[in-house]
Design a protein that fits this description.
2 domains; Rossmann fold; nine-stranded antiparallel β-sheet; Jelly Rolls; about 30% helix; seven-stranded mixed β-sheet; alpha+beta; about 475 residues
Protein backbone atom coordinates (compact mmCIF):
# COMPACT_ATOMS: atom_id res chain seq x y z
CA UNK A 1 0.00 0.00 0.00
CA UNK A 2 1.34 3.41 -0.92
CA UNK A 3 2.52 5.75 1.79
CA UNK A 4 2.23 9.47 2.06
CA UNK A 5 5.05 10.86 -0.04
CA UNK A 6 7.01 14.06 -0.35
CA UNK A 7 8.63 15.48 -3.44
CA UNK A 8 10.76 18.33 -2.10
CA UNK A 9 14.36 18.54 -3.25
CA UNK A 10 17.59 18.35 -1.32
CA UNK A 11 20.39 20.74 -1.96
CA UNK A 12 24.00 19.69 -2.42
CA UNK A 13 25.59 19.67 1.02
CA UNK A 14 29.08 19.25 -0.34
CA UNK A 15 31.44 16.29 -0.27
CA UNK A 16 31.88 14.67 3.11
CA UNK A 17 35.38 13.44 3.72
CA UNK A 18 36.47 11.04 6.44
CA UNK A 19 34.81 8.71 8.87
CA UNK A 20 34.41 11.40 11.52
CA UNK A 21 32.37 13.52 9.10
CA UNK A 22 30.19 10.56 8.24
CA UNK A 23 29.60 9.86 11.92
CA UNK A 24 28.35 13.43 12.21
CA UNK A 25 25.89 12.92 9.36
CA UNK A 26 24.70 9.74 11.06
CA UNK A 27 23.93 11.76 14.17
CA UNK A 28 26.83 10.36 16.17
CA UNK A 29 28.91 13.47 16.63
CA UNK A 30 26.85 16.49 15.54
CA UNK A 31 25.31 18.99 17.89
CA UNK A 32 21.85 18.24 19.23
CA UNK A 33 20.09 20.75 17.01
CA UNK A 34 21.33 19.07 13.84
CA UNK A 35 20.56 15.59 15.12
CA UNK A 36 17.01 16.55 16.16
CA UNK A 37 16.30 18.34 12.90
CA UNK A 38 17.13 15.22 10.94
CA UNK A 39 15.35 12.65 13.09
CA UNK A 40 11.53 12.47 13.11
CA UNK A 41 9.65 12.64 16.36
CA UNK A 42 8.89 9.35 18.07
CA UNK A 43 11.16 6.65 19.45
CA UNK A 44 14.80 7.61 20.08
CA UNK A 45 17.27 7.09 17.22
CA UNK A 46 19.25 3.88 16.95
CA UNK A 47 22.38 5.51 18.27
CA UNK A 48 20.72 6.01 21.65
CA UNK A 49 20.51 2.24 22.01
CA UNK A 50 17.98 -0.54 21.73
CA UNK A 51 17.81 -3.24 24.36
CA UNK A 52 17.91 -6.62 22.67
CA UNK A 53 18.12 -8.31 26.06
CA UNK A 54 15.04 -9.91 27.58
CA UNK A 55 13.26 -7.99 30.32
CA UNK A 56 13.21 -4.36 31.35
CA UNK A 57 16.30 -3.96 33.52
CA UNK A 58 16.68 -3.69 37.30
CA UNK A 59 13.62 -2.54 39.24
CA UNK A 60 12.76 -2.02 42.87
CA UNK A 61 11.05 -5.17 44.19
CA UNK A 62 7.55 -4.60 45.54
CA UNK A 63 6.31 -6.09 48.81
CA UNK A 64 4.28 -8.02 49.67
CA UNK A 65 4.17 -10.69 46.89
CA UNK A 66 3.33 -11.22 44.09
CA UNK A 67 6.35 -9.60 42.52
CA UNK A 68 7.48 -9.02 38.96
CA UNK A 69 10.20 -11.28 37.60
CA UNK A 70 12.86 -9.14 35.96
CA UNK A 71 15.60 -10.51 33.76
CA UNK A 72 18.85 -8.68 34.55
CA UNK A 73 19.86 -6.37 31.75
CA UNK A 74 22.49 -7.79 29.43
CA UNK A 75 24.58 -6.00 26.82
CA UNK A 76 22.88 -5.94 23.42
CA UNK A 77 24.44 -8.47 21.07
CA UNK A 78 26.81 -6.85 18.63
CA UNK A 79 26.23 -9.46 15.93
CA UNK A 80 24.12 -12.40 14.88
CA UNK A 81 25.98 -14.72 12.54
CA UNK A 82 27.50 -12.50 9.86
CA UNK A 83 25.20 -9.55 10.68
CA UNK A 84 26.78 -6.81 12.79
CA UNK A 85 25.40 -3.77 14.64
CA UNK A 86 21.80 -4.88 15.09
CA UNK A 87 20.84 -1.57 16.72
CA UNK A 88 21.11 0.09 13.32
CA UNK A 89 18.13 -1.93 12.06
CA UNK A 90 15.62 -0.47 14.51
CA UNK A 91 13.50 1.23 11.82
CA UNK A 92 13.32 -1.97 9.77
CA UNK A 93 12.51 -4.19 12.74
CA UNK A 94 9.80 -1.83 13.97
CA UNK A 95 8.11 -1.98 10.57
CA UNK A 96 8.30 -5.76 10.41
CA UNK A 97 6.83 -5.95 13.90
CA UNK A 98 3.82 -3.88 12.86
CA UNK A 99 3.28 -6.11 9.84
CA UNK A 100 3.43 -9.22 12.01
CA UNK A 101 1.07 -7.74 14.60
CA UNK A 102 -1.43 -6.66 11.96
CA UNK A 103 -1.15 -2.99 12.94
CA UNK A 104 0.81 -1.77 9.89
CA UNK A 105 -0.64 1.08 7.87
CA UNK A 106 2.09 1.04 5.26
CA UNK A 107 4.56 -1.24 3.54
CA UNK A 108 8.07 -2.05 4.73
CA UNK A 109 10.40 -1.08 1.89
CA UNK A 110 13.96 -2.28 1.36
CA UNK A 111 16.00 -0.52 -1.34
CA UNK A 112 19.30 -2.11 -2.39
CA UNK A 113 21.82 -0.34 -4.63
CA UNK A 114 24.62 -2.50 -5.97
CA UNK A 115 26.64 -4.07 -8.75
CA UNK A 116 26.06 -7.18 -10.89
CA UNK A 117 25.34 -9.34 -7.84
CA UNK A 118 22.31 -7.14 -7.18
CA UNK A 119 21.45 -6.66 -10.85
CA UNK A 120 21.03 -10.42 -11.33
CA UNK A 121 18.29 -10.37 -8.64
CA UNK A 122 19.06 -13.96 -7.67
CA UNK A 123 20.15 -13.24 -4.12
CA UNK A 124 17.71 -10.36 -3.64
CA UNK A 125 14.98 -12.54 -5.17
CA UNK A 126 15.62 -15.15 -2.48
CA UNK A 127 15.44 -12.44 0.19
CA UNK A 128 12.25 -11.00 -1.32
CA UNK A 129 10.44 -14.33 -1.41
CA UNK A 130 11.44 -15.21 2.16
CA UNK A 131 10.35 -11.88 3.65
CA UNK A 132 7.09 -11.58 1.71
CA UNK A 133 6.10 -15.15 2.58
CA UNK A 134 6.36 -14.31 6.29
CA UNK A 135 5.31 -10.67 6.48
CA UNK A 136 3.12 -10.21 3.40
CA UNK A 137 3.71 -9.06 -0.17
CA UNK A 138 3.62 -5.29 -0.59
CA UNK A 139 4.36 -5.47 -4.32
CA UNK A 140 7.28 -6.10 -6.63
CA UNK A 141 8.58 -2.58 -6.16
CA UNK A 142 10.77 -0.65 -8.59
CA UNK A 143 11.82 -2.17 -11.92
CA UNK A 144 13.11 -0.77 -15.19
CA UNK A 145 11.17 -0.50 -18.44
CA UNK A 146 12.95 -1.15 -21.74
CA UNK A 147 16.67 -1.85 -21.66
CA UNK A 148 18.68 0.90 -19.94
CA UNK A 149 21.57 -1.53 -20.40
CA UNK A 150 21.69 -4.55 -22.67
CA UNK A 151 21.74 -7.28 -20.05
CA UNK A 152 18.95 -5.96 -17.82
CA UNK A 153 16.92 -8.89 -16.46
CA UNK A 154 15.24 -9.52 -13.13
CA UNK A 155 12.91 -11.99 -11.50
CA UNK A 156 9.39 -11.65 -12.87
CA UNK A 157 10.36 -8.95 -15.39
CA UNK A 158 11.02 -9.22 -19.16
CA UNK A 159 11.78 -6.01 -21.02
CA UNK A 160 12.52 -4.81 -24.54
CA UNK A 161 12.46 -1.71 -26.73
CA UNK A 162 12.76 -0.37 -30.27
CA UNK A 163 14.14 3.07 -31.25
CA UNK A 164 14.91 4.01 -27.66
CA UNK A 165 18.47 4.54 -26.41
CA UNK A 166 19.38 3.05 -23.05
CA UNK A 167 21.89 4.65 -20.72
CA UNK A 168 23.08 4.65 -17.14
CA UNK A 169 25.79 6.33 -15.12
CA UNK A 170 28.56 5.37 -17.54
CA UNK A 171 30.62 7.57 -19.89
CA UNK A 172 28.05 7.90 -22.70
CA UNK A 173 25.17 10.32 -22.37
CA UNK A 174 22.53 10.97 -25.02
CA UNK A 175 20.27 13.52 -23.33
CA UNK A 176 20.20 17.25 -23.83
CA UNK A 177 22.43 19.58 -21.76
CA UNK A 178 20.75 20.05 -18.41
CA UNK A 179 19.60 16.45 -18.00
CA UNK A 180 23.01 14.99 -17.16
CA UNK A 181 22.95 12.68 -14.16
CA UNK A 182 19.16 12.28 -14.26
CA UNK A 183 18.98 8.49 -14.25
CA UNK A 184 15.98 7.79 -12.06
CA UNK A 185 15.94 5.74 -8.88
CA UNK A 186 17.41 2.66 -10.57
CA UNK A 187 20.34 4.49 -12.14
CA UNK A 188 19.15 3.88 -15.71
CA UNK A 189 16.98 5.64 -18.27
CA UNK A 190 15.76 5.23 -21.84
CA UNK A 191 15.41 8.16 -24.23
CA UNK A 192 14.05 8.89 -27.72
CA UNK A 193 12.69 11.62 -29.97
CA UNK A 194 11.41 9.22 -32.65
CA UNK A 195 7.76 8.76 -33.47
CA UNK A 196 6.58 5.22 -32.78
CA UNK A 197 9.52 4.31 -30.53
CA UNK A 198 8.39 1.61 -28.09
CA UNK A 199 9.60 0.28 -24.74
CA UNK A 200 7.87 -2.37 -22.70
CA UNK A 201 7.97 -4.59 -19.64
CA UNK A 202 6.20 -7.92 -19.24
CA UNK A 203 5.47 -8.36 -15.54
CA UNK A 204 4.58 -11.70 -14.02
CA UNK A 205 4.45 -10.16 -10.54
CA UNK A 206 0.99 -9.13 -9.42
CA UNK A 207 0.14 -5.46 -8.93
CA UNK A 208 -2.84 -3.24 -8.15
CA UNK A 209 -1.17 0.10 -8.90
CA UNK A 210 1.53 0.79 -11.51
CA UNK A 211 3.43 4.05 -11.31
CA UNK A 212 5.62 5.25 -14.19
CA UNK A 213 8.47 7.70 -13.55
CA UNK A 214 9.82 9.96 -16.29
CA UNK A 215 11.48 13.33 -16.91
CA UNK A 216 9.73 16.64 -17.47
CA UNK A 217 11.97 18.92 -19.55
CA UNK A 218 11.82 22.07 -21.68
CA UNK A 219 12.10 20.11 -24.96
CA UNK A 220 9.85 17.30 -23.74
CA UNK A 221 7.53 15.38 -26.02
CA UNK A 222 4.54 13.14 -25.51
CA UNK A 223 4.06 9.42 -25.12
CA UNK A 224 1.23 6.98 -24.67
CA UNK A 225 1.15 4.98 -21.45
CA UNK A 226 -0.30 1.58 -22.33
CA UNK A 227 -1.27 -1.22 -19.94
CA UNK A 228 -2.39 -4.61 -21.28
CA UNK A 229 -2.75 -3.16 -24.79
CA UNK A 230 -5.05 -0.36 -23.60
CA UNK A 231 -3.92 3.27 -23.54
CA UNK A 232 -4.49 4.53 -20.01
CA UNK A 233 -2.95 7.98 -20.44
CA UNK A 234 -1.31 10.31 -22.94
CA UNK A 235 1.54 11.95 -21.09
CA UNK A 236 2.98 15.36 -22.01
CA UNK A 237 6.50 15.75 -20.62
CA UNK A 238 7.16 19.38 -21.58
CA UNK A 239 7.90 21.58 -18.57
CA UNK A 240 9.80 24.69 -17.61
CA UNK A 241 12.59 22.77 -15.86
CA UNK A 242 14.21 19.35 -15.66
CA UNK A 243 12.32 17.52 -12.95
CA UNK A 244 11.14 14.00 -12.18
CA UNK A 245 7.46 13.29 -12.75
CA UNK A 246 5.18 10.37 -12.01
CA UNK A 247 1.96 8.90 -13.39
CA UNK A 248 0.16 6.18 -11.44
CA UNK A 249 -2.77 4.09 -12.67
CA UNK A 250 -4.89 1.51 -10.80
CA UNK A 251 -5.01 -1.91 -12.43
CA UNK A 252 -6.79 -5.18 -11.81
CA UNK A 253 -4.89 -7.53 -9.50
CA UNK A 254 -2.61 -9.78 -11.53
CA UNK A 255 0.31 -9.77 -14.00
CA UNK A 256 0.48 -7.04 -16.63
CA UNK A 257 2.25 -5.78 -19.73
CA UNK A 258 3.26 -2.12 -19.69
CA UNK A 259 4.34 -0.14 -22.76
CA UNK A 260 5.50 3.38 -23.55
CA UNK A 261 5.04 4.61 -27.13
CA UNK A 262 6.51 7.98 -28.18
CA UNK A 263 4.61 10.41 -30.41
CA UNK A 264 7.75 12.02 -31.89
CA UNK A 265 6.94 15.61 -30.88
CA UNK A 266 9.97 16.08 -28.62
CA UNK A 267 12.38 14.35 -26.29
CA UNK A 268 11.02 11.56 -24.10
CA UNK A 269 13.06 10.23 -21.17
CA UNK A 270 11.60 7.41 -19.08
CA UNK A 271 13.00 5.84 -15.90
CA UNK A 272 11.06 2.89 -14.54
CA UNK A 273 7.97 1.40 -12.94
CA UNK A 274 6.85 0.90 -9.35
CA UNK A 275 4.50 -2.04 -8.80
CA UNK A 276 2.36 -1.78 -5.68
CA UNK A 277 0.00 -4.33 -4.13
CA UNK A 278 -3.17 -3.43 -2.25
CA UNK A 279 -2.17 -5.29 0.90
CA UNK A 280 0.55 -4.13 3.29
CA UNK A 281 3.75 -6.15 3.18
CA UNK A 282 7.43 -6.09 2.24
CA UNK A 283 8.93 -4.80 -0.99
CA UNK A 284 12.55 -5.33 -2.04
CA UNK A 285 13.94 -3.09 -4.82
CA UNK A 286 17.03 -4.60 -6.48
CA UNK A 287 18.74 -1.57 -8.06
CA UNK A 288 21.94 -3.08 -9.41
CA UNK A 289 24.03 -2.16 -12.46
CA UNK A 290 26.60 -4.47 -14.00
CA UNK A 291 30.11 -3.20 -13.35
CA UNK A 292 28.95 -0.57 -10.87
CA UNK A 293 30.99 0.78 -8.00
CA UNK A 294 29.86 2.89 -5.07
CA UNK A 295 30.98 5.91 -7.08
CA UNK A 296 28.02 5.28 -9.42
CA UNK A 297 25.85 7.07 -6.87
CA UNK A 298 28.14 10.08 -7.13
CA UNK A 299 27.55 10.30 -10.90
CA UNK A 300 23.81 10.82 -10.39
CA UNK A 301 22.34 14.23 -9.81
CA UNK A 302 22.00 14.30 -6.01
CA UNK A 303 18.75 16.32 -5.62
CA UNK A 304 17.17 14.19 -8.37
CA UNK A 305 17.93 10.79 -6.86
CA UNK A 306 17.30 12.05 -3.32
CA UNK A 307 13.79 13.17 -4.30
CA UNK A 308 12.99 9.74 -5.73
CA UNK A 309 14.56 7.87 -2.83
CA UNK A 310 12.49 9.89 -0.37
CA UNK A 311 9.42 9.11 -2.43
CA UNK A 312 10.05 5.40 -1.81
CA UNK A 313 10.24 6.13 1.96
CA UNK A 314 12.51 3.14 2.60
CA UNK A 315 12.80 1.46 5.97
CA UNK A 316 16.20 0.04 4.98
CA UNK A 317 18.73 1.15 2.37
CA UNK A 318 21.44 -1.34 1.44
CA UNK A 319 24.67 -0.52 -0.41
CA UNK A 320 26.11 -3.67 -1.98
CA UNK A 321 29.36 -2.77 -3.71
CA UNK A 322 33.00 -3.81 -3.48
CA UNK A 323 33.53 -6.58 -6.03
CA UNK A 324 34.46 -4.25 -8.88
CA UNK A 325 36.52 -2.02 -6.60
CA UNK A 326 38.62 -5.09 -5.72
CA UNK A 327 40.07 -4.93 -9.23
CA UNK A 328 40.91 -1.22 -9.04
CA UNK A 329 44.17 0.47 -8.06
CA UNK A 330 42.62 2.81 -5.49
CA UNK A 331 44.27 2.95 -2.08
CA UNK A 332 42.21 1.92 0.97
CA UNK A 333 41.98 5.59 1.96
CA UNK A 334 40.62 6.61 -1.45
CA UNK A 335 38.18 3.71 -1.50
CA UNK A 336 36.86 4.62 1.94
CA UNK A 337 36.45 8.23 0.89
CA UNK A 338 34.32 7.17 -2.11
CA UNK A 339 32.22 4.87 0.07
CA UNK A 340 31.76 7.59 2.70
CA UNK A 341 30.64 10.06 0.03
CA UNK A 342 28.12 7.58 -1.44
CA UNK A 343 26.72 6.62 1.95
CA UNK A 344 26.52 10.26 2.96
CA UNK A 345 24.21 10.96 0.04
CA UNK A 346 21.88 8.22 1.24
CA UNK A 347 21.97 9.52 4.81
CA UNK A 348 21.16 13.06 3.67
CA UNK A 349 18.24 11.87 1.55
CA UNK A 350 16.59 9.51 4.06
CA UNK A 351 18.19 10.11 7.48
CA UNK A 352 15.59 8.12 9.42
CA UNK A 353 15.95 4.93 7.35
CA UNK A 354 18.00 2.02 8.61
CA UNK A 355 21.18 1.50 6.60
CA UNK A 356 23.29 -1.56 5.88
CA UNK A 357 26.53 -2.17 4.01
CA UNK A 358 26.42 -5.58 2.33
CA UNK A 359 30.03 -6.72 2.07
CA UNK A 360 31.13 -8.33 -1.20
CA UNK A 361 31.20 -12.11 -1.54
CA UNK A 362 34.54 -13.83 -1.89
CA UNK A 363 36.52 -13.29 -5.10
CA UNK A 364 39.28 -15.65 -6.19
CA UNK A 365 42.32 -14.77 -8.30
CA UNK A 366 44.58 -17.24 -10.06
CA UNK A 367 48.20 -17.48 -8.91
CA UNK A 368 51.04 -19.91 -9.51
CA UNK A 369 49.84 -21.70 -6.41
CA UNK A 370 46.24 -21.93 -7.62
CA UNK A 371 43.11 -19.93 -6.89
CA UNK A 372 43.21 -17.82 -3.73
CA UNK A 373 41.03 -15.12 -2.20
CA UNK A 374 41.91 -11.68 -3.54
CA UNK A 375 43.72 -9.73 -0.79
CA UNK A 376 41.87 -6.64 -2.00
CA UNK A 377 38.51 -8.24 -1.14
CA UNK A 378 39.66 -8.80 2.42
CA UNK A 379 40.83 -5.20 2.58
CA UNK A 380 37.49 -3.92 1.26
CA UNK A 381 35.56 -5.95 3.83
CA UNK A 382 37.62 -4.32 6.59
CA UNK A 383 36.99 -0.88 5.15
CA UNK A 384 33.25 -1.43 4.89
CA UNK A 385 33.08 -2.65 8.47
CA UNK A 386 34.85 0.54 9.63
CA UNK A 387 32.59 2.82 7.58
CA UNK A 388 29.42 1.06 8.72
CA UNK A 389 30.43 1.36 12.36
CA UNK A 390 31.24 5.07 12.01
CA UNK A 391 27.98 5.77 10.18
CA UNK A 392 25.74 3.87 12.57
CA UNK A 393 24.84 1.33 9.88
CA UNK A 394 24.58 -2.44 10.05
CA UNK A 395 27.16 -4.55 8.23
CA UNK A 396 26.73 -7.99 6.69
CA UNK A 397 29.92 -9.96 6.01
CA UNK A 398 29.17 -12.10 2.96
CA UNK A 399 32.74 -13.36 2.87
CA UNK A 400 32.25 -14.82 6.34
CA UNK A 401 28.80 -16.12 5.43
CA UNK A 402 30.35 -18.10 2.57
CA UNK A 403 32.87 -19.68 4.93
CA UNK A 404 35.76 -17.22 4.79
CA UNK A 405 38.80 -17.01 2.55
CA UNK A 406 39.03 -19.75 -0.05
CA UNK A 407 35.26 -20.18 -0.30
CA UNK A 408 34.90 -18.98 -3.88
CA UNK A 409 37.60 -21.34 -5.14
CA UNK A 410 35.95 -24.26 -3.32
CA UNK A 411 32.43 -23.37 -4.47
CA UNK A 412 33.55 -23.22 -8.13
CA UNK A 413 34.64 -26.89 -8.23
CA UNK A 414 31.71 -28.40 -6.37
CA UNK A 415 29.11 -30.56 -8.12
CA UNK A 416 26.86 -28.77 -8.73
CA UNK A 417 29.00 -25.61 -8.53
CA UNK A 418 27.90 -22.76 -6.29
CA UNK A 419 30.23 -20.29 -8.03
CA UNK A 420 30.74 -19.31 -11.66
CA UNK A 421 33.86 -20.18 -13.59
CA UNK A 422 35.12 -16.61 -13.35
CA UNK A 423 35.34 -17.04 -9.54
CA UNK A 424 33.73 -13.59 -9.27
CA UNK A 425 30.04 -14.40 -9.55
CA UNK A 426 28.00 -17.19 -8.02
CA UNK A 427 25.73 -19.78 -9.54
CA UNK A 428 21.99 -19.66 -8.98
CA UNK A 429 22.44 -22.09 -6.09
CA UNK A 430 25.23 -19.99 -4.61
CA UNK A 431 23.20 -16.79 -4.67
CA UNK A 432 20.23 -18.63 -3.17
CA UNK A 433 22.42 -19.88 -0.32
CA UNK A 434 23.81 -16.42 0.41
CA UNK A 435 20.32 -14.92 0.32
CA UNK A 436 19.02 -17.58 2.70
CA UNK A 437 21.95 -16.98 5.07
CA UNK A 438 21.26 -13.25 5.07
CA UNK A 439 17.55 -13.73 5.80
CA UNK A 440 18.30 -16.23 8.58
CA UNK A 441 20.63 -13.79 10.36
CA UNK A 442 18.29 -10.84 9.73
CA UNK A 443 15.35 -12.71 11.27
CA UNK A 444 17.41 -13.96 14.22
CA UNK A 445 18.19 -10.33 14.94
CA UNK A 446 14.49 -9.50 14.52
CA UNK A 447 13.55 -12.19 17.04
CA UNK A 448 15.96 -10.67 19.56
CA UNK A 449 14.44 -7.25 18.92
CA UNK A 450 10.90 -8.59 19.44
CA UNK A 451 11.93 -10.36 22.64
CA UNK A 452 13.37 -7.10 23.97
CA UNK A 453 9.99 -5.41 23.43
CA UNK A 454 7.94 -8.11 25.18
CA UNK A 455 6.49 -6.96 28.51
CA UNK A 456 7.77 -8.61 31.66
CA UNK A 457 5.52 -11.40 32.95
CA UNK A 458 4.21 -11.35 36.55
CA UNK A 459 5.49 -14.03 38.84
CA UNK A 460 3.14 -16.81 39.91
CA UNK A 461 1.67 -16.39 43.42
CA UNK A 462 4.08 -17.42 46.15
CA UNK A 463 2.94 -19.89 48.82
CA UNK A 464 2.37 -18.39 52.23
CA UNK A 465 5.26 -18.94 54.67
CA UNK A 466 4.83 -21.75 57.17
CA UNK A 467 3.66 -20.58 60.61
Amino acid sequence: MSRGRTTGKLGNDGVVVGLAALACIAGLGCNDAVAKAREPSGPPPAEEGISFAGGAGARERAAPPPVTIVTPERPAPAAVGALENLRALRRLYEGLGRLEDGTAREDVRIVQFGDSHTAADLETGTIRRALTSRFGDGGRGYVQIGRPWKSYAQEGVRTGMTDFIGEHSGPKFHGRPGSEGLFGLGGGAIATDRRGARAWAELSARANVIELSYLQQPAGGSFDFIVDNVRVARVQTRGVAYTAAFRAVPVADGPHTVEVRALGDGDVRVYGLTLDASANGVTVDALGINGARATALLAWNEPHVAEQLRRRTPDLVVLAYGTNESGDDATPERYERHLVDALSRVKRAVPSASCLLLGPPDRAIETKDGWITSPKIVEIVRSQRRVAQAAGCAFYDQLAAMGGEGSMAAWAVQDPPRAARDRVHLSRDGYAQLGASFVADLLRGYSLYRASKAPAQPAPPQPAPAP
